[in-house]
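Our working data are protein records whose layout never changes between entries. Getting from the letters to the tokens is the skill we practise here. To make this concrete, we reproduce a full record directly below:
***
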Amino acid sequence: MEARSSANGAGHRHTRWNFIVIVLDASFFGAGLAFLDPVAVLPVLIERLSGSEVIVGLMSALQRAGWIVPQLLGASIVLHRPRKKPFVVYPCLLGRLPFLALAIFFCMPGARADLQMLLLLLIVAFAFFFFTDGLIGVPWHDIIARTIPSGLRGRFFGSIQFLGGILAIGAGAAVRRVLADETIPFPQNYGRLFILLFICMTISTFFLLLIREPRPFTVGERHSLPQIIRAIPATFRRSPLLLRVIIAQNICGIAGLALPFYAVYANVRLGLPPHTGGLFIWAAIVGSVFASVIWAYLNDRRGCTRVIRGVAYLVIAVPLSALLLPHLVRALGVQSAMAYIYAVVFLLNGATWGGMWMGFTNYVLELAPDDVRPLFLGLNSTLAAPTILMPLLGGLLLGVISYEHLFVLVAAAGVLAVIYTRRLPMPRPLPRPTPAAESDLTTPPEVRP
């Protein structure tokens, strides 16, 4: 047990430093993405470039796929390695470069002449970024688990959402100002947003380089991806709560059906101009910032299961607000306030996805043994793969049903999520191996005694 105790001790020595550095890294990352927000800004840009709701859904699906699909592969790469940081740094350095290329091409004077080329470049660049970002998910969260004690993780994730939200307020202001400026033609206006995005990503990478990683307990041999896949049934038998939380995450993830279409609905059906995307970003930020305080309190005082249950209720509230608020505006005769009242949809949505990340991530971190934590993280993300298809499926459904019917479908899924998560117990960590089994800590799960 000495190796494990030493590793944990090293992790706690780095707690204060890594708390600050990783919060800054993640906050600038989130603020950067706010300039081309995947919910409020990017869908409108893609719709203007393509005129296709299916492609809007495809891009949102690519984002989910990029985050989910590579993580089990990432687990197989890092599971046996004592150092995880290189597998965070190098994919980041490579994966964020396409934003510089997008900034250059969108700012070119003749960019408007070939919108199809810009659309293709946009899809390829974001797909590459999403997949490299997905590769770092397992090692990044593993470093967090080894340096941030469980009693601080609610405050840690809450701090990321709070500071990232404050920084993103500036991003929302920039989006609103740039897209409302009629002297900047399309698509050069979006090119300026890509420049700001790249600057924030560069700052994020700088803080990423400053992370201090303790030497963890070392898994002795490499486990290939096929070995890990064959071990999945035995892993679920040993930890049935892992399977239950993955099912809960998939049910809540049905909310992704409508995720990229709230902004498109506002633009196409409610007649709100594209620059209201800045207002929607602000609303999402406010929702994420204020909810982060509540989620952090619930996580550290009442447990991460309470966070997950709260998220399930919001999965119902977001689409219902998109359905009802426009009718309320018309009933009150305050059409000029439509953008501000409809922004409540994004406020609730920001709270939803922030809570989903905090709740489900902390559940798995508390459940996972130290030696196979990357495996648990990889399984949790990869087996949430059905949620990848939700935005694309939403786009296809909009070919046969209305926006309103799509929102009703998501609200119904939220009801199912509430019912299921109410029966989800608090995570119970697996028992530490006995001294007699200590030599088997590095054995793959399928052959452990």
